[in-house]
């Protein structure tokens, strides 16, 4: 028997949850290897040797190692999701569109979440400024624009871009709230994704856990 691909992950991590959503969508079982980020388990010599970027998720599939959530999602659909090709289409134009949204997540959405969260979660910061929050909310305007006349971020078919972006948005929408009157399409998109049968266990719980942890750490840092 083939051994299952192994995923080093944390439910707190939005990129980890994007990969878990992708695996669920294609019906792929992963061997899950939890990593505790707050305890620095991603900084051990063994982990850094496997992934010099020391990020999670990290996928090990036989002798293949892949270290970025967006790349992992595309790889899993390509290798194990033949029946679900629409998630990461082979058509060049459609794929380029999905890739563009994946870059939007890594370059803007997730980058801005990190800019706000990381100093507070890891370095005792108390800075949860209006500027940082507004910087995240600017991304909502972009997403609203892409969702203008379609159900999902790349048209009317669900793709891995939706998984990557929803994992990030739902991890930060307490501290950077989404105005449902200003962003009705974004609000509808979030509701639509929440209807997926595997969504609650795979994304919602981890997102809520991260938001709760963030608020607790911010309060703790401010009380010092």
TrEMBL record:
GO terms for molecular function: glutathione transferase activity. It comes from the Eukaryota. InterPro entries: Glutathione-S-Trfase_C-like (IPR010987), Glutathione-S-Trfase_C_sf (IPR036282), Glutathione_S-Trfase (IPR040079), Glutathione_S-Trfase_N (IPR004045), GST_C (IPR004046), Thioredoxin-like_sf (IPR036249). Residues 3-84 form the GST N-terminal domain. Transmembrane segments: none annotated. Homodimer. This is Glutathione S-transferase 1. It comes from Drosophila rubida. The lineage of its organism: Eukaryota, Metazoa, Ecdysozoa, Arthropoda, Hexapoda.
């Amino acid at each position: 028997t083939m051994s299952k691909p192994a995923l080093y992950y944390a439910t707190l991590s939005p990129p980890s949850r994007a990969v878990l959503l992708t695996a669920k969508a294609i019906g792929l079982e992963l061997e899950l290897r939890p990593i505790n980020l707050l305890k620095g388990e991603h900084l051990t010599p063994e982990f850094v040797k496997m992934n010099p970027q020391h990020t999670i998720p990290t996928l090990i599939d036989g002798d293949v190692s892949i270290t970025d959530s967006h790349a992992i999602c595309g790889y899993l659909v390509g290798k194990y999701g033949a029946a679900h090709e629409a998630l990461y289409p082979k058509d060049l134009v459609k794929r380029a569109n999905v890739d563009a949204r994946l870059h939007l997540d890594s370059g803007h959405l997730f980058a801005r979440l990190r800019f706000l969260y990381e100093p507070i979660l890891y370095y005792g910061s108390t800075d949860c400024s209006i500027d940082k929050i507004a910087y995240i909310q600017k991304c909502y305007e972009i997403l609203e624009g892409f969702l203008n006349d379609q159900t999902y971020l790349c048209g009317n078919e669900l793709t891995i871009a939706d998984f990557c972006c929803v994992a990030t948005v739902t991890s930060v929408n307490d501290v950077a709230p989404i105005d449902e009157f200003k962003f009705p399409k974004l609000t509808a998109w979030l509701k639509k994704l929440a209807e997926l049968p595997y969504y609650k266990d795979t994304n919602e719980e981890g997102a809520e856990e991260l938001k709760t942890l963030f608020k607790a750490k911010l309060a703790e840092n401010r009380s010092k």
